[in-house]
Design goal:
183 residues, mainly alpha
């Protein structure tokens, strides 16, 4: 079992302080950057674990672009919207938030993903549509299974300003899965 030293703890605290510093000053940009990093890292890991002899850098860049311009802004504004639209004092507010996220945000965001990634990779609209037809429904079902409990935790316990970061960390693994599902 690996042991962590107080020096490791200090490094984590410095990283958290740096993240908070940027989050307070530039919340959208910070969330876009963390989304780009986790999205591209997920694709890189999927390629590496998948035994790719040559990395497809265009895929990695496509995931980074989608993370920066898609995931970061979408989650930033969506979580702000949820916080404003559903007050904590509302009866069953967490269930309402989760229902909105699961039935509206997740399906539409996944649709955006399945069309955007092939286009960002330069494959064209026909390939994007084919990618959607093959991968969307199985991925949506997997999304509902994988993310539902995690989103409940996120929406109930994670402060709104950290909800994108929480999903980014979990999405690292989800992006590995999605990388294997999109053609």
């Amino acid at each position: 079992m690996a042991k962590f030293s107080s020096q490791d703890d200090a490094l984590y605290m410095k990283a958290l302080k740096l993240y908070n510093y940027h989050l307070q000053r530039h919340p959208l940009l910070t969330k876009c950057c963390t989304s780009a990093v986790t999205s591209s890292l997920g694709n890189y890991i999927a390629q590496t674990l998948g035994g790719q002899s040559d990395l497809k850098y265009r895929n990695i860049v496509a995931f980074a672009i989608f993370g920066f311009f898609g995931t970061g802004p979408a989650t930033h504004y969506f979580y702000r919207y949820l916080a404003a639209a559903v007050k904590p004092s509302d009866k069953n507010s967490n269930v309402i938030k989760l229902t909105i996220e699961r039935l509206f945000f997740a399906p539409s965001f996944l649709l955006l993903f399945f069309y955007s990634i092939p286009l960002l990779e330069g494959k064209g609209l026909t390939a994007a549509h084919d990618n959607f037809k093959v991968g969307y429904l199985p991925s949506l079902k997997a999304n509902w299974k994988f993310w539902s409990f995690l989103q409940y935790i996120n929406l109930k316990y994670v402060p709104q300003q950290y909800q994108t970061l929480f999903t980014n960390v979990i999405a690292l693994f989800w992006n590995i899965y999605l990388s294997t599902k999109q053609s």
